[in-house]
Design goal:
Elements (H helix, E strand, L loop, with lengths): L7 H10 L37 E2 L8 E13 L5 E6 L11 H4 L4 E3 L1 E3 L2 E29 L15 H6 L12 E2 L9 E4 L7 E13 L7 E4 L6 H10 L5 E2 L1 E3 L2 E3 L1 E24 L10
Length: 291
């Protein structure tokens, strides 16, 4: 690029106004004209202009599934080992906590101890349950393209293992007067009677996700969204979408990748939920996790 030349008189004027003195600081020249920021129309970041969006060619059937899930509980144990309350902590299926109200009156623990005396605490424990999902149907299922001006749904952050546990702070919150955090006790409350039982139950869960349909027509990504998130429903969906028959999006006669929204509900029967093992943790779960 060719350098721009200035008239000699103009350059001389600049030197006179600002002599080459190390003690002299240049003065900022205010901008007399302030233009308003340009307004950029909102466009959904996953929207794509296509001639025809993906299409679900037939209403899918929910496939049966048998697998193991972990149900974490926070259990309030008094100084005599009685269970005063028990709450499911982000259960994989919310319906799995239904038996607790009938079970906890029969549960007993050896109480936690601090400096040799029994203390009240919220114990943390988990059941490993072998569950079987049967007779699943989708009474409502909407498979729609992401619209250009559709509000952005925040994706659910998915955690597992140690990353999931680390989200919970050490202190009980909200504070529970008289109860000590299980992370502060010297001896953990030990379950003596914590029998688990389950009767076949018909359940209904919400389905809400962003789904990527590549040019091949097979779903490659499912990102859960919206309230009512149940981790195992997302796992179940991922196990069955490979069998869904989907026509990919088309642009200028060629199949292309396209994001879709999946909204609806699924009804199913949890026929069995067998206790395959349990454990206690010295990790406080009676708190709001930090995501």
């Amino acid at each position: 690029m060719q350098a721009r030349s200035f008239p000699a008189a103009f350059v001389a004027l600049l030197f006179l106004a600002h002599p080459a003195d190390s003690q002299t600081k240049p003065e900022a020249i205010p901008d007399p004209i302030r233009l308003p920021a340009a307004e950029v129309p909102y466009v959904h970041p996953l929207w794509r202009a296509v001639d025809t969006p993906p299409k679900l060619l037939e209403v899918p059937k929910a496939t049966d599934l048998e697998t193991t899930v972990s149900l974490f509980l926070t259990v309030k144990v008094d100084t005599k080992g009685n269970v005063l309350d028990a709450v499911g902590v982000e259960p994989p299926l919310k319906g799995l906590t239904a038996p607790l109200q009938f079970l906890i009156p029969k549960w007993r623990f050896t109480p936690a101890k601090k400096e040799g005396r029994a203390v009240v605490t919220w114990a943390s424990m988990s059941f490993d349950l072998l569950i079987s999902m049967e007779k699943g149907v989708f009474p409502v299922l909407k498979f729609l393209p992401v619209e250009k001006e559709e509000p952005l749904q925040a994706p659910i952050r998915e955690f597992s293992g140690e990353a999931w546990l680390k989200r919970f702070p050490k202190a009980i919150s909200p504070p529970d007067a008289g109860a000590l955090s299980v992370e502060e006790v010297d001896f953990l409350p030990n379950p003596e009677k914590t029998k688990w039982s389950w009767d076949a139950t018909r359940l209904r869960s919400r389905v809400s996700a962003l789904v990527l349909v590549p040019s091949s027509g097979a779903v490659s990504r499912i990102v859960p969204t919206g309230p009512g998130y149940e981790p195992f429903i997302t796992t179940w969906l991922r196990s069955m979408v490979a069998k869904w028959k989907i026509a990919p999006a088309m642009l200028k006669g060629m199949p292309v990748d396209c994001w879709m929204t999946l909204e609806g509900s699924v009804e199913y029967t949890v026929d069995t939920a067998k206790d395959k093992g349990r454990r206690t943790l010295q990790k406080n779960l009676r708190a709001t996790p930090v995501d």
